[in-house]
Amino acid sequence: MALIEVETLTKTFKISKRREGLSGALMNLVKREYQFVQAVDNISFHVEQGETLGYIGPNGAGKSTTIKILTGILTPTEGRVEVNGLVPHKQRRQHVKNIGVVFGQRSQLWWDIAVIEAFTLLRDIYEVSKNDFQKQLKKFDEVLEIGPLLHIPVRKLSLGQRVRCDIAASLLHNPPVVFLDEPTIGLDVAVKSNIREFIKEMNASLGTTIILTTHDLSDIEYLCQRTLIIDQGKIIFDGDLEKAKNELARKRKIQIDLYEHIDIDVIREKLNIAQLEFTKRNDYSLTISFDKNEISAINIIQTILDHFHPRDMKIEEPTIEAVVKEIYSEDI
Amino acid sequence: MRSLFFYSKIYFRYLSQYLKSRLEYRADVLIQIVSALSAQIGTLIFVLTIFNHIPDINGWSYGEILFIYGFSQTSMALFSMFFSNLINLGRLYILDGNLDRVLLRPLPPLLQIIIERLDIGSFSTLALGFGALSYAAVKLNLSFSYHLLFFFVVLIFSAVLILGGVVLILVSLTFWVKDPTGAIAWPLMTIRDFAKYPITIYSAPLQVFLSWILPLAFTSFYPATLFLERTDYIFHVRMTPLIALLTWGIGLFIWKRGLQRYESAGS
Ligand SMILES: Nc1ncnc2c1ncn2[C@@H]1O[C@H](COP(=O)(O)OP(=O)(O)OP(=O)(O)O)[C@@H](O)[C@H]1O
Ligand SMILES: [Mg+2]
User: Fold this and answer.
1) Do residues B22 and B29 make contact, with C-beta atoms less than 8 angstroms apart?
2) Interchain CB contact of B262 with A (< 8 Å)
3) ipTM exceeding 0.90, yes/no
4) B9, B108, B264 member nearest A73 (Cβ)
5) Tens of pLDDT along B59-74?
6) Between the ranges A129-143, A288-302, B167-181, where is the mean pLDDT highest?
7) Average per-residue pLDDT for chain A
8) What dihedral do alpha carbons A168, A208, A135, A187 form, nearest 10°?
9) Counting one residue from A and one from B, how many pairs have CB atoms under 8 Å apart?
10) What is the pLDDT of residue A332?
11) I want to staple B210 with a disulfide (CB 3.0 to 4.6 A). Which of A150, A221, B72, B217 is the partner?
């Protein structure tokens, strides 16, 4: 049995349609029209213990909704969810003892009290020993640099400072399962890389199972062996993005700078292959796009070397963004 | 099942945090207490003068009316002290999605909401209500045996629970009727003033309403009659703890059902 099991999960929101203007508002009082949004539409997946799962998709795809179901906040409309043998929305209090949750968009901390007070309150709620608590604080201070923030009320922190405190708060009790919904939102480059390192380390040393949603694909590239892509409530990809990068983004580009003036027609004549696409960048530089499954880059380069005088050449690897874009467009 | 010790500890930890955060705004706290106090003194003066001129209303003497008034204020103050945040449950927690945060902690959600905030102003209501109650008791020469003292505690406790239960029922309806104005709890806030006076002064339908629909008469008038040595309402006195259990039973049922419909907020 997998640690997290999601079977044919669906969540439908009923939204009352609002008409425009004051007369519309009055009409709304008399007669409401409803609209149904399938935020999560019949999805299934399993996560094994110790996995770091990336969960990505465009805005409004259903990521946060899925996380809210997995953490027991929302009750599914249909389907089955189990985490660690518990059904989150039914055995919620038992379940939340074993999980850590960060919603980057919305703080889980009490607004009016100082960070350290919030932490000690959480220590008492989760019954963490004083010793462990001190150890955790020290560790978090090293990675998240929260030391200077401890005595500031939460409402006075900047977005990035608050997110750092939220991450620390969610991990105080050393949960075996962690849900991170946009945990790197608003973080500067240095802290972001610290956090990535920290998440990776936590996964490696403690075997923590992690589900991570983000709009920063480099987070995913760095941390996740497996990624789910969700779009309009449906899972459209489940696998290794690195592999997908190799399989899906077949289009490669070579950028070539020549000493001589470029005449596309001459080059096209020498490189007589139908599927090539030429784009002139300027008089001395051009880009050749090709499908790497049909033509090898070596062939192109060899031909260029034989007939022209190249000054510089660059092969562009597909980026992870390009891969994700391609998956989205295939879905449509 | 976690021990009572654990919950009491958590309760006091929340309480001290809350007080600490409030005391940062000393002026604010002072204003709250002073304004609540002056409002209370205002009504008290009103009651004292009006009823001083009328020796008896509908068979209720001035002292008796004051006692009922004091009982009502005492239970209302204790309600505000412990359950005031329940009134925010609809808008602040259910509609604004703050319930997310509460649901992610391994503590009963209602407990967390109740202890996240308390109404400091209600201390002055409590002092005045209890003052009025004691003054009336002395004036009426009421004898308080240990027996009666015990019943007093039970009945005040029940009255507070009834107020809390009724509010819980009303605000839990927010899960169905998405009411951003918090108007659901509004009738209670107005109608509760009726409970400050002997309900026999009202028309029969209103009496039925205050007894069996919105049972506010059980938070003041009925339980108070036990100490006024009136025997006509002994059935209602006995019903008071049962009504407390019933309102909480219904309240918890609606709350639990509503929780399954909780939609969080978009972000
Ligand atoms: N409480 C709610 N009530 C009604 N509709 C909702 C609610 N929460 C989410 N939705 C709708 O469900 C869909 C999915 O929302 P969700 O928040 O899960 O998206 P997301 O993938 O997390 O997006 P983002 O990347 O912007 O955070 C959206 O169309 C949203 O409008
Ligand atoms: Mg989201």
Assistant:
1) yes
2) yes
3) no
4) B264
5) 888 889 889 999 999 9
6) A129-143
7) 90
8) -30
9) 65
10) 58
11) B217
Q: Which three-class secondary structure state does DSSP give residue A4? A: strand
- B261 within ligand 1 shell (Cβ under 6 A): no
Cα separation, A242 vs A255, in Å, equals 23
The alpha carbon of residue A147 and the mean position of all alpha carbons in its chain are separated, in whole angstroms, by 28
CA A67 to chain centre: 12
Cβ–Cβ contact A113 with B under 8 A:
yes
- Yes or no, beta carbons of B17 and A121 under 8 Å apart: yes
Q: In what order do the strands lie in the sheet with A226-231?
A: A99-103, A177-181, A209-213, A52-56, A226-231, A234-239
Closest Cβ–Cβ partner in A13, A121, A125 for B263: A13
Question: What whole-number distance in Å separates Cα of residue B210 and Cα of residue A282?
Answer: 87
pLDDT of residue A308: 87
For the entire predicted model, the pTM comes to 0.86
Rounded percentage of chain A residues whose pLDDT exceeds 70: 98
Hey, which CATH number is domain A4-245, 3.40.50.300, 3.30.200.120, 3.30.450.40, 3.40.1390.10? Answer: 3.40.50.300
Domain at A250-331: CATH architecture:
2-Layer Sandwich (3.30)
Q: Which of A94, A108, A112 sits opposite B21 (nearest CB)?
A: A112
B contacts of A32 (beta carbons < 8 Å): none
Token pair belonging to B158: 């029940």
Q: Is A186 on the interface with B (CB under 8 A)?
A: no
Q: Which residue has the higher pLDDT, A83 or B49?
A: A83
CB contact under 8 A, A92 and B105: no
- Asked whether A79 and A45 are in contact (CB, 8 A), the reply is no
Q: Whose CA is nearest to atom 6 of ligand 1?
A: B266
DSSP state of A277: E
pLDDT band at A321; cut points 50, 70, 90: confident
Question: Whole-angstrom distance between the N-terminal and C-terminal Cα of chain A?
Answer: 34
The whole-number pLDDT of residue A298 equals 87
- pLDDT, residue B183, reads 72
Number of domains in chain B: 1
Ligand nearest to the CA of A73: 1
Please state the rounded mean pLDDT for residues B187-206. Answer: 85
Q: Which residues of B touch A117 (CB under 8 A)?
A: 17, 20
Range of the domain at B30: 2-259
pLDDT at residue A296 tops 70: yes
Q: Is residue B202 in a domain? A: yes
Q: What share of chain B is helix, strand, coil (3-state, %, to 5)?
A: 80, 0, 20
Q: Is the CB of A60 inside a 6 Å radius of any atom of ligand 1?
A: yes
